[in-house]
Structures are given as C-alpha cells and as structure tokens.
C-alpha cells in the first residue's frame, strides 16, 4: 500500500507502475489541488490524512478494502490507455478517500 500526500510522492512510484497510470494520478492530484488548495504553492500542497490517495499493490489489499461494503461509496473501473484501474471511493467521515488498484492481466 502506497500513500500519496504530495505531488512529489508520485515521482517515487515511477517505474513501479505503468507510466500512463502514474500520469493519470498526476492529473488527479492536480485536480485535488485545484479543488482543495488554499493558496499554497503547488509543490507545498499536502493532502490531509483522510484525503490521501492510496495505491493498493496487492489483490489482498484490494479485497480487504472491499470487505467493508458499507464504507464503499463507489467502485468504478477505468481504462487509462492500455491499463485497467479500479478507482474505489471509501466513505471516511466527511471525505471520500480514493484508492486505486491496477488490474494485472
């Protein structure tokens, strides 16, 4: 499980995940900055703990998250070029925490 709180965290996963997926997450992070930012510089913007983007690395992690169905706000499958990703929104108090799982063929 990898937690992304700052944009620079995404550079750490380059090479470990498909490039198109990493680029997709960079766009997602930028949209969160546009929505949640309070005037701080982009490179200083940090997601709160409950807004952290979480990348699930193992199928077991994904299955554990989905066991608690009452917390699942949505589960959608998206295609990012040649990569299929599950985007899971978990209801966490007053926020939706985003989880991502890259489906392996």
Oligomer: single chain
Level of helix content?
Answer: 25-40%
Strand order of the largest sheet: 1-2-5-4-3
Beta-strand level of the residues, as a percent range? 25-35%
Number of helices: 3
**Count of β-strands:** 5
The string of secondary-structure elements, in order, is: EHHEHEEE
Largest sheet: 5 strands, mixed
Any overview of this molecule?
This protein has three helices and five strands, in the order E-H-H-E-H-E-E-E. It is α+β, with helices and mostly antiparallel strands. It has one domain (2-103). The radius of gyration is 14 Å and the shape is globular. The mean pLDDT is 92.
Structure summarized in a few sentences:
With 105 residues, the protein is α+β, with helices and mostly antiparallel strands. It is built from three helices and five strands; from the N terminus they run βααβαβββ.
